[in-house]
């Protein structure tokens, strides 16, 4: 018995050693830099992971128009549903693809994990000028560029035009008017709500705070300044707590069956979304074609309207990539070429607003806005995009989002309130950043 | 004792191969050399797999749990791995969220185990009485939910719990019952309900198999002595299948420690369940949402240790009871 034990143990150890050395070898394999371009016979192939609508079509279009660089696209689950862990694990294992799609809120976290390459070299002033300055700022950290903006995603309010007209409810331009409109909607149809406060997605609330001029994270004198309960955020928290307490909004989770069921039943007649939401909405309730319309997100100051950005994605080059130059060729083509936007918008139902303003007319021409009664969506988006508040920066930790998400559960369940939730978020975020060794200034 | 363990060991093997190890007795040494060689050859695949799938990951987790990642300045230079000794363990134990996870588990076990064991015993005894008709049909019907993967089961239940969507919730509301499965108070019963649905039939089958092994002459003797169905059930059948009951208890307690899939899905679907509701969810969130692999590894090791201590305690108690019987 004992002899067989030691023998099998030795076999196992041998096998394990083989595995480990194999893994080490593969990990080292990516280190050498490949040339920027291949040849027609031997093109450089870059791999690309994303979940955004139309990515497959964009990759196909690139392959159809290029022969020295080719793209291999793989669809992954969306970030919050397992996509980000998948990316983080792949980077850790040394097998991440060359090009990654990462949303703005998670970018700083990937940067501080050391998962991405510094691409400042490729982001020349001429390249940067092609994008909305706010989106460039959101992808610049510590004075270096870490990603290329794909879309800007200004907040937009979608509403059931037929319902608002039928009940003579004026369209809300400010949040005060929105509250009045919410009351009118409830009076007109007691089971119906003007919109949904998404309690499962902390970025929904954060974007609302962003719009009001909050700045949760900023860098000053080489330290992170954290302030998740600044006056602007407190104002937004008090407002939404009132809306929830008075049952003027629904609190179904975002894009949940509960939410879609209420849209289909017509008991939710508005959607506080962003530019890309138009396509999503049209996909959920195609039978309500022609009944919906889009307008500016209500604002705090009617004279100087501003918006925050809800999600939105960027393209980055992973640490593991040995093909930075080829990857950047593909990324810059994706972000700045009309072919790419045409492929994305017309082949799918994406209504993303390109971060490069020059491409907006292309998207505008390619999109079918029949669902919105032929409304000129992109004109609205472009106008809203220009008013994105430039003071917001996402933080280098998921602790803020995680704490806020858990707190929001309590807000809906009645265990806590939004004003309390943001102070808890502040202390948890500061503690998490300190623990990870960062310099932190607690602004609360 | 021996007949009792044999009925138990079969079921144990189905459910968890690791648990058979303490039950297996080394074969008696006859013709030592040859048998030893054969055993070695036959066992090698097991040990190879065991090493690759168990020992190496456990070793890696132990190793990971001793390190932490440190950033500096603004953190854009990327992280450094730093040896932290037992720092991760201390931090995890000091984290109220981790301890709360065990409190939730405690509540879960207190609610779940009595209903599960009581319900399964009652159903198994019913099936075992002479009165029962269509035994096979009932056995199959009871077992069927267990054939559905936990993930799918959780998805179905999420649908049935969702207000505005679920016919069950609608029916309850029109009947005047306003129970909210997604509220913070409703979270625990919701999860217990899913677990019951999944595991009740399985445990009924274990109990029923044990009841089938009860010597029929004993039951006849009891009948002759004038014992009715109730008396037979409580005074003869139950004491005889005690080891099966302990077995089910053991698995249920360990299974409870692994509570993860159902609450995670509920948590993503609008329930009041938070990201670190159970210890396993805590480890998951630390690793895959907060990227703190060291802390996640430490939490996993602590969960494994708890499971080991609990299993040891339950088997010890079970063996002592068994020996005194």
TrEMBL record, chain A:
InterPro entries: Bact_solute-bd_prot1, SBP. It comes from the Bacteria. Keywords: Cell membrane, Lipoprotein, Membrane, Palmitate, Signal. SUPFAM superfamilies: Periplasmic binding protein-like II (SSF53850). Pfam families: SBP_bac_1. The keyword Lipoprotein applies. The keyword Cell membrane applies. Residues 1-26 form the signal peptide. This is Sugar ABC transporter substrate-binding protein.
UniProtKB/TrEMBL annotation, chain B:
It is a multi-pass membrane protein. Keywords: Cell membrane, Membrane, Transmembrane, Transmembrane helix, Transport. InterPro entries: MetI-like, MetI-like_sf, UgpAE/MalFG_permease. Residues 1-32 are annotated as: Disordered. The chain crosses the membrane at residues 37-63, 109-128, 140-160, 191-211, 240-260, 296-318. This is Sugar ABC transporter permease. Belongs to the binding-protein-dependent transport system permease family. It comes from Streptomyces tremellae. The lineage of its organism: Bacteria, Bacillati, Actinomycetota, Actinomycetes, Kitasatosporales. It is found in: Cell membrane. Signal peptide: none annotated. Residues 104-314 form the ABC transmembrane type-1 domain.
